[in-house]
Amino acid sequence: MDSSEQRRKRKRIFRPSSPTATIVYFFSVRSFVLCFSFFIFLFLLSYQIPFSSSDFRPVLVVSRLSLLSSSSDLLSTSQSFQDFGSSSLLHLQIEARVLFPDHVLLLVNKNDLFSKNTDFECVYGRNRNGDDVGVVKEKSFSVDVYGESEFGVLVRCPLPPVNYSAVVSLRKFRGNGLWKESNQTVNSWENVAYAATLDGNTVVVFVKGLNLRPDRQSDSSQFSCYFGLGNFEKEGRFALRTKAITAAQEVVRCELPLSIRKNPEKARGIRITIGMLPHIHAKAREHVLLPSVAKITELKSEGRGNVENGKYDLCVCTMVWNQGSALREWITYHSWLGVERWFIYDNNSDDNIKDVIEELETENYNVTRHVWPWIKTQEAGFSHCALRAKKECNWVSFMDVDEYFYFPYSNPGHQSLRSTGYAGQDSLRSLVANVSSSSPRIAEIRTTCHSFGPSGLNSAPSQGITVGYTCRLKSPERHKSIIRPDALDTTLLNVVHHFHLRKGFRYMNLPQSTAVINHYKYQVWDVFRAKFFRRVATYVVDWQNNQNEGSRDRAPGLGTEAIEPPNWPLQFCEVWDTGLRDFVLSNFADLSTGLLPWEKSSF
C-alpha cells in the first residue's frame, strides 16, 4: 500500500495542475526538441563544409537534366531489373551515364571489391512500348580506373538494342545481381559538364554544350559555377554559386567559395556544373544549368617518383586513339633527345596501348596513361594536361605520335655540330633549357612541320615510320609548340597548335635550319583510313562530313568516304628527304644485328 501511494504522489508532482500549465508544459518540451534538432542539423551541415555568412547563398537550383528515357521507360526497366537475378546487390553504385554515338559510358563508384581485371556485363531493360518486358545482356567494351575522379571506374557498354532503354545496368560477367542504382539519368555527350579540377583558389570546369567560338575568349559574365552539397547534390540541386572568371571554348574558370577555399581538401568529390544565361538581358536567377557528371578533383603526380630537386626540364603531352603500335618508336626516339616525362591521354582506345605503356614503364620510361573518355575534346584535353604538367614540368611539348623533332643543323653557324652531321643526345632538352636561361620572357617555342606522304609504300614499313617514309611536300604546313605551363593565359585557350600566353610573355619561331618536325601525316592507306573513324579536335570536322572540304585539315583530293584514292602511295611526294632516316639508322640500330629498338620489341 505504501509503495502504491508513493507512486500516486510522484505522478501528481509531474502532472500539470491546470489547463494553462498543461499548455506551457507542452510548448516547453516542443521548443526543446526543435532547438535540439536545429543544432544537430547545423552541426552535420558544418561537418560537411564549414560555411560562413559571406559565401553561403541558398540558391538551391534544380538542374534541368535532359533525360533520354521517359519515366514510363524507366519504370518498366526497373521492374525488369527487379525480376532479374536473386543475388544481393554489389557494393558499388552507378553514379552517371553518358550516351555517345557508339557506346554508353557508365561512371561507377569504386571500392575494395573492384578489380581492373574483372569483366562485366551490360544489362538493358526493354522500353514499355516494346513487344514485351525483358532484359538483354552484352559484354562491356572496356573497364578503366578513372584517374583522380571520385567516380573511380569507367565502364563502356555497347549501345542498347532497338526498343531497349539507355539506362544500362551492370553485373559481373556470367554472375547474378545488379549493381546498386544511384540515379537513372542518361546524359548526352554533347551537353554536359564532364570534368573539373582545382587550380590554386579557382576551379576549372570542362563542359560541352556552351557552343563558344574557337580561338577567342568569351564573356565570362554569362556564366557561373554551381557547387552541389550532400543530399542536395544527390537530388540534382546545388547550394553554392560563384561567378566565372574566364570562359573560352569548353573551359570555364571560377573562384572557389570562401568556405571551400579555406579548406581545399573539402572540395574534392563535390559535384559542379555551369549555369549560363539564356539571353544577354537575363538575370542571375534565370541561369540554365547544364547537366553534369563532373566532380572536383585535384591533379596529382603519377610519374616515377617525385621531382625533389626541381621540375623536369621537358615533358610531352599527347592524346591518342589506338596508337599502341606507334607509341614505342615515338617515345624511344624523343627520350633520346631528352624528353623526361610523358602524359598519354587515352581517348577510348581498344588496342594494346595499356600493355605497351606498362612495358615502357618497366623499362624506366617515365610514362603515365590518363583515361580521357570525352570525344571531340582535344583542345580541352590539352588544357587539362597543361594544368597537370604545371606541377612537374618547366616545358611541355604538345604533339601527336606521328610527329618527330629533327635537327638538320644545316646552318653555317653550327659548324662544330655539322662535323658529325647530327645533333647529339639530349639536344631537345638542351634547347629549351638554353631558352629558359637566355630569354626568360619566351614561353612558347614554335617549330615548323613538314608533311610526309606514303613514299611509294603499300604496307606499313617494318623498321618504323622514321625509316620508311622519306618523301614529303615541299612547303611546310603549320607548326607545333613547346610551352611553359606556368606562363599560360588563365583561359588556357589553345587551338592545338599553340596556346595563348599571359601578358608579358611571348613566343619564338624556331628557325628551320635549327629544327623541324617531320609530320608523317599521310601514311599507307591501311593506317591513314583509321582517321575516318573520328577526329579528336573539337573544331575540326570529321573526315566523313562534307564540310570545309577545302580546309588544310583535310587531305587534298580526298572525299568523305574511306575509299582509297587512285595512286595513293605516290601522293604528297614532292621532295625526297632522308635526313631523319639516316640519323635514326646511325644512332639507334644495333651494331651486331642492325635491328632498331622498336623492331626488337616486336620480335
Structure report:
By secondary structure, this protein is of the alpha/beta class. The protein contains 14 helices and 30 strands. The strands form six sheets. Strands 20, 21, 22, 23, 24, 25, 27, 28 and 29 form a nine-stranded mixed sheet that branches. The protein has an eight-stranded mixed sheet with strand order 18-17-13-15-16-12-11-19. Strands 2, 3, 6, 7, 9 and 10 form a six-stranded mixed sheet that branches. Helix 6 links the parallel strand 20 (312-320) and strand 21. The longest helix is centred in the first third of the chain and has 30 residues, at 19-48.
Helices and strands in order:
Elements: H1 2-14, H2 19-48, E1 61-62, H3 71-82, E2 90-99, E3 104-109, E4 120-125, E5 135-139, E6 142-145, E7 152-157, E8 169-172, E9 179-181, E10 186-188, E11 192-199, E12 202-208, E13 223-227, H4 230-234, E14 237-238, E15 240-248, E16 251-255, H5 258-262, E17 272-276, E18 288-289, E19 296-297, E20 312-320, H6 324-336, E21 341-346, H7 353-362, E22 367-371, H8 378-389, E23 393-398, E24 403-406, H9 415-418, H10 427-438, E25 442-451, H11 465-468, E26 471-472, E27 479-483, E28 506-509, E29 516-519, H12 525-528, E30 575-576, H13 579-588, H14 597-602
Parallel strand pairs: 2-9, 2-10, 11-19, 20-21, 20-23, 21-22, 25-28, 25-29
Antiparallel strand pairs: 1-14, 2-3, 3-7, 4-5, 4-8, 6-7, 11-12, 12-16, 13-15, 13-17, 15-16, 17-18, 23-27, 24-29, 25-27, 26-30
Helix pairs in contact: 6-7
